[in-house]
Write a structure and sequence with these properties.
heterodimer, A: alpha+beta, outer membrane lipoprotein receptor (LolB), chain A, twelve-stranded antiparallel beta sheet, B: mainly beta, 13-stranded antiparallel beta sheet, two-stranded antiparallel ribbon, 2 helices, 15 strands, globular
């Protein structure tokens, strides 16, 4: 009896999880609203918290920092705790600073980094649904939309099993990016305290 | 072709390496004293910096003791991309759970395994008795594993671990040092290969789990 109760409880929880997000009825209308909202965003400054979940080790590694975006293709991702790490994307150029060294990362790893930031840029520019590397399903719940992205290109398949981008319905701002790698380990980046269209100095995006 | 050239250069450099262990004098001593220096890591995070043949790589290294007493070493980049996931286990030995294709070469696996074995001091717990040598004001505690010899170098009273080395009975291949232990966990570790440009630098960082 207890087992049956447990099974029903777990089934209920799983069912509730699925019910949270459902497919969007009028995708075209939402995309149009999203594109219109993105048109009004010239810059974003926000805090972020990244949690890397190593499922087999029952282990989580949490890091925090600042995220900056400026139209069209400028991103600054600055990890401040528990380690210092800086990545700046300015157009096609990428600069990475760890400790005292400014370098490029290994191609494989930087691609994942750049893809994560590309997704953020795509969201801010309203072009996330046009990414040719993924098929995108649009889901929604009461407060947010979820772009459920499955990689289609060989290159992306080597990096991700899936990527989910959560956008708040109020303002179409990205609140979370969830990336699942091929081992099933998840990295979640949550954004908070977003400030829109503030004057971000050029120095933030200077490639050194 | 370029790889073969690189290997040739490494072999040539290796043959030129000075025979540092030739002058060691056999001495009396208890190899068990080395066990006091063995790190006891339940969970530790390190900011890792790796320089190899002119290339630089950085990331986060997690060392964690699992419930079955094995140790896992996972190296990811700052964004969470996993480079490798290794297991050191008393019963299963060395297990590669994952490694990115660019690093997945037998020589790389073997080198990293031996480097971490040297740091974790696994040999100090094996029944194999250490041979003890003297050189000036230092004692060398030498553990033979196959063709390799792991050397733990202390002061003459075996009260301080000065450095760790790996090589054979004649030549040194790797030198490693570490910072002070805090509750059995090294605050920093450094591995330097002497026969080619390969340096791993680890500095401990504290995240939420230690707060």
């Amino acid at each position: 009896m207890r087992k049956l109760f447990l099974i029903l409880l777990l089934a209920g929880i799983a069912g509730a999880g699925r019910a949270q997000y459902k497919p969007v009825g009028n995708t075209a209308a939402v995309k149009a609203q999203f594109a219109a909202a993105a048109q009004k965003i010239n810059s974003i400054a926000s805090d972020f918290t990244q949690v890397k979940n190593l499922s087999m080790l029952s282990e989580k590694v949490t890091s925090k920092g600042k995220f900056y975006f400026r139209k069209n293709n400028q991103v600054r991702m600055e990890y401040t705790t528990p380690y210092q790490y800086l990545m700046v994307i300015n157009g096609s150029k990428v600069s990475i600073k760890d400790g005292q060294k400014t370098n490029r990362m290994a191609a494989g790893s930087s691609k994942m980094f750049q893809q994560a930031n590309q997704l953020m840029m795509d969201c801010a520019k309203g072009t996330v649904f046009d990414n040719p590397n993924f098929t995108v399903k649009l889901l929604e719940n009461n407060n947010s939309y979820m772009a459920d992205m499955t990689p289609v290109t060989k290159e992306m398949k080597t990096l991700f099993r899936s990527v989910k981008v959560i956008l708040q319905k109020s303002g179409f701002l990205v609140s979370q990016v969830q990336m699942v790698d091929n081992k099933g380990d998840q990295t979640t980046i949550s954004y908070s305290g977003q400030q829109l269209n503030t004057n971000l100095p050029d120095a933030l995006f200077t490639i050194r | 072709m370029r790889f073969l050239q690189f290997v040739s250069i490494v072999l040539l450099l290796n043959s030129c390496t000075p025979a540092v262990y030739k002058k060691l004098q056999r001495a009396e001593g208890d190899g068990a004293c080395i066990r006091q220096f063995r790190p006891h890591i339940e969970r530790a995070l390190y900011q890792a910096s790796v320089d190899v043949a002119g290339n630089h790589l950085s990331g986060i290294l997690l060392i964690k003791r699992m419930p079955d007493s094995s140790s896992r070493i996972v190296f990811t980049n700052e964004a969470g991309f996993t480079f490798f996931d290794f297991e050191f286990s008393g019963s299963r030995g060395f297990v590669v759970h994952s490694i990115i294709s660019k690093m997945d070469k037998e020589a790389v696996r073997k080198t990293l395994r031996k480097d971490f074995e040297l740091l974790l001091m696994n040999v100090a717990d094996t029944p194999a008795a250490a041979a003890v040598f003297r050189k000036e004001d230092t004692c060398y505690y030498a553990y033979n594993t196959g063709s390799d010899v792991y050397y733990y170098i202390t002061d003459v009273r075996c009260s301080q671990l000065i450095r760790m080395e790996r090589g054979n009975t004649r030549k040194k291949v790797v030198e490693a040092t570490r910072g002070p232990l805090k509750d059995g966990v090294p605050e920093s570790m450094n591995i330097r290969h002497t026969n080619f440009n390969f340096v791993i630098d680890l500095k401990r960082i504290y995240d939420h789990a230690e707060e």
